[in-house]
Amino acid sequence: MSPFTAKVIGIIRTIPPGKVMTYGQIASLAGSPRGARQVARILHSMSKKHKLPWHRVISSKGEISLKDDEQKMALQFEGVKVTNWSINLSQFQYHPDKNA
DNA sequence: TGAATGACAACCC
DNA sequence: CGGGTTGCCATTC
Question: Which superkingdom, per the lineage (predicted)?
């Protein structure tokens, strides 16, 4: 467990319903702008052990990676329009408040 | 300790 | 615009 991992988890937990974040964005906020893959690995490995809203984490193209029906339905339920596994980032990507 | 992996991202053709 | 390849970096074996 590295500070990066803990930070990534913390960031994911801050994603509000109806919003999504990309791996690269999360990785960047976590301190590793190139660590998008680690974010993916963290989700893959820790999501079950943590109560992370991993379904709000998508690829930079605004698409669901797993193409999991549960994830898609969860997002739609929160208000995110998921069209053919794609999401309108400009409309649903979450921009964290630097003021926090 | 060293090598391989991976829910990605960016670049090139 | 679409498809394929390379780079990145922490985690895992």
Answer: Bacteria
